[in-house]
User: Fold these one by one.
Assistant:
Number 1:
Amino acid sequence: MKKLMILGGSRYALPVIKAAHSLGVYVITADYLPDNIAHKYSDEYCNVSITDQEATLNAAQERNIDGVISFACDPGVVTAAYVAEKMGLPSVGSYEAVSILQNKGKFRAFLTEHGFNVPTAKGYTSIDDALKDVGLFHWPVIVKPTDSAGSKGVNRVDDPANLRKAIEYALSFSRGKEFIIEDFITQHGFSSDTDSFSVDGELKFVSFDSQRFDSKAENPYTPAAYSWPSSMTQEHQAELASEIQRLIKLLGLGTSIYNIETREGTDGKAYIMECSPRGGGNRLAECLEYATGVKLVENAVRAALGMPTVGVEQKPYNGCWAEVILHSDKPGVFDSLWIDDSIADAVFERDLWIESGTKVGGFTAANEAIGTLVLKFKTEKRLQEVMKDPSRFVKVLLKK
């Protein structure tokens, strides 16, 4: 029986465990939080910090694993590449290549070096050095930790006088105490954050969506909904698919799922913002399987174990799809979820993770989500009507 080590124990690992078990694979989940939900469903739990590469490697060697994966878990992606390289296990690419993808500063530098469309950007470890460079950027700017995901530590800054505060906030979420400043790209339509898949270095499945935000949330830069198809022009989708393929070739990548963020700017250019060799959070791969039938999660497991992939090919969406990330805009005590009767026929799946009486936080980052609602519409017109303001149709009600 093959052994797969999954780095991270959040609920986003549950479909990975299910897929692995369907293939007859023994599953080991690993992190330093024994109460995480995924550990209840794996065959074995390993208590180790997945950001500690040597400790994770030792744990993997002791268990003689056949594959390692960090799915929808950003902190474990580089560690998974490290373990795979040291043990000679299947991996999307070299530790060096994965490290470039996972560090926003290195990634921007790589894109610039190889002639990709890229906003003015620079990585820093010193606040004072950054403050000296205010004239380098075209304001407003975005300040981010280089090694964080889920919109943690991200802020838009319109006035250089507020830059220090934004940097300090970003650094509070950075393990490596490194941050990046980049020009804010004013987007045309919606940005895209969705999953794709390459097999032996060839981009076999690529998707684009419309990533939506909740302006009323405590952090308006935390994704609050997604919809397929994308608002992006077909020309820019084709251009980005070609550029993603070029990126895969330049980095020598092989077989993997990717979470890719792209954007269409009002300057007429299309940008690759991020490309991480992992499944995205917020159940994106599962939604894409509903919409296309392509089994991205199962094939991510197959790739991690060196098994042949099955059915990874470009397929059209079988309808118009949306996913609403259920959340409260402010802290309180959860009472119930209200869904308007007018969209009852569009509800494909309702997945609520908490019960009435549970304390909830404001939507400051992706980890404040309390569930998901998957919707399928017959027409794109109806999708747009509902997704223009999902809060009219779906509300998280707090106790008074």
Number 2:
Amino acid sequence: MNTAPTWVVILAGGVGSRFWPLSTPERPKQFLPLISDQPMLRDALDRLAPVADATRTLVLTNAELADGVRAIAPELPADHVLAEPRPAGTAAALAWAAARIAKQAGPDAIMVSVHADWAIGDVPKFRDALKLAAAEAVRTHGLITVGIVPTHADTGLGYIEVGDATEGAARRVARFAEKPNQERAEALVAAGALWNSGIFAWPVGVFLDELRAHCPTVAAPLAAAGDDAAAFFGAVKEPIAVDVGVLERSARVYVLAGQFGWNDVGTWAALRGVRAGDAAGNIAHGRVHAYDATANVVYATGADVVLYGVSGLVVVEHNGVVLVTTEEKARNLKPLLEQLPPSLRERR
């Protein structure tokens, strides 16, 4: 019988630019009400509460965002918001959380890691997948990742190639594939590969052992820093993702297939997959009036937005700024923001 406590770790760092003009460095994607009427981080906390209560939930975020996280998550003990003094990659962030859990609950405690800024279509199935991942982490004494059964060949996501079966539900990971081109993505999907979601579960002691074996650039500063977050994050010279630093190098990695309506909501256009549209396929938030208009995505926070005779646009109105673009261009707003005057780009 599995008696190891399960902890949930929510990654809520990063600022990003893909949801400009609504997002700002002080109000990033995870603080925005993109899916419901509350911040995405609040949505994540609510859906995860049955998996681990507030006493076993940690949120990792940038130091500048820590107060905002605490305001969104007042139920968490103040020291369960772990503030990173500087970005050092997910390997360092998850190592810091694992060390914290190991110190408090022991090396057999199970850590389930997710991101704060996802949309989940079937929440009960999502919770069941996390609980199964935790159980398989105990059974295999390994590192479990939950891969998403693809709905299409997506070039914006990494993939997990599935290997040999085990005695339980998890299979071994054959290899991880970086974001592919279209032809390669189609071949991966046809071969049964899964999207790399970034959902992980592992006994913290096992993860820290694998970190020491495969990622000394993070493990050595962690051992030397003790409880000093500034010393640890400051000593990690090059940011490294946990996939690259640990999972791609370890022989103890397993995968479960998940189907629960996962969407990483990467762009404004992605709202089409997570919000209900009208009869003409328009996705609208706020005071939006669409006439002879089809398949548009509109997000308005103050002014009325009127569409007439247009199709396939992304329109965002916020704080006196109106962005009008296409779904394709909305996938990468960075070139636009680099050309805008700072007074407009950084308007709060």
Number 3:
Amino acid sequence: MKVVFLSNYYNHHQSELSNAFYQKTDGEYYFIETSVMSEERKKLGYSLGSVPSFVIKYEEDKIRAISLINSADVVIYGSCPESLIKERLKNKKLTFKYSERIYRTKQNLLKFPVRFIRFFKKYGFCKNHYLLCSSAYTSYDYLKTLNFINKAFKWGYFPAFKSYDKPLSLIAKKQENSILWVGRFMKLKRFNHTLEVLKRLKTDGYKVVLNVIGTGELEDDYKDLVKKENLTDTINFLGAMKPEMVREYMEKSQIFLFTSNRQEGWGAVVNEAMNSCCAVVASKEAGSVPYLLNDGENGFIYSNGNVDELFIKTKTLLDDKILREKLSYSAYKTLENEWNAENAVDKFLTLSSELLSGSKKPFIYKTGVLSKAEIIKG
């Protein structure tokens, strides 16, 4: 089976999945880059330096790229010019659109008729065209356009999974009362909510250490706020660092806070924190959270920017060692057993084989990756 993946650029969020595709298709896999990575992303560690031979830059080899797109058994496309898959859709070849949510802010209902027409012209008459939801809210957003109804599957991002021989030993060695936050300093990440939690914990007499990894436009504002609230003794601003170094901090941290709002498409740091045996407290509004976490089973979920709930659940993890370690271990097992690149590719190739064979009722997975994407409002 020849598989082609189109996206903006090759990075560490796509490399693990791509390597699995390449191995499991006996080299019949190609990743086509359709744009150039921004300098900001490079500074955040997205650039991998050297790239595998299966990566093709569209601007440098357009003829080969188009030939691969039109001849592949299966195409997955994300951020790319719609013109690149137009011929393929016209010929009803098996194609998967992978997408985060398309409406990240509240919408004017009067504009939906126009959007419906625009989206239906793109996708409404396309057979063998399915949706991979890289957000728990993608299927709901597309439902508003009446597209991909009963043709949407759970998907996501699959950072490198790191296997530990003794995850319980890793959990036991974590730094006491250690909390980690990772992200860019921008409004959608809501780092100020984390600061409010630290302020309340300090008021209640907790001695915790918050390590913060990232940079961004609001960095100076947040540092000023830390000084104003007398939190400099509990918070370490570590700046930007490479992904492998971020993972080292995750391995040392007991608790990981993820505070993004609905504008967060996925949030691959949640995958990585769970893989690193962190007890995660995450905002339900972020795209990855309803897929990866079950509240109270493998982490905690809080809703709608509710800082009180975020504080209570963080405090609970600090107070209850048994619960914290249980959630940490369950988080790791969720990534080991289900939400990893190897499993995603196995499931994808099985489903694609059935669809290519003309099966009218292909096997649909009941849970996890490639199960039916429920309609989740948000």
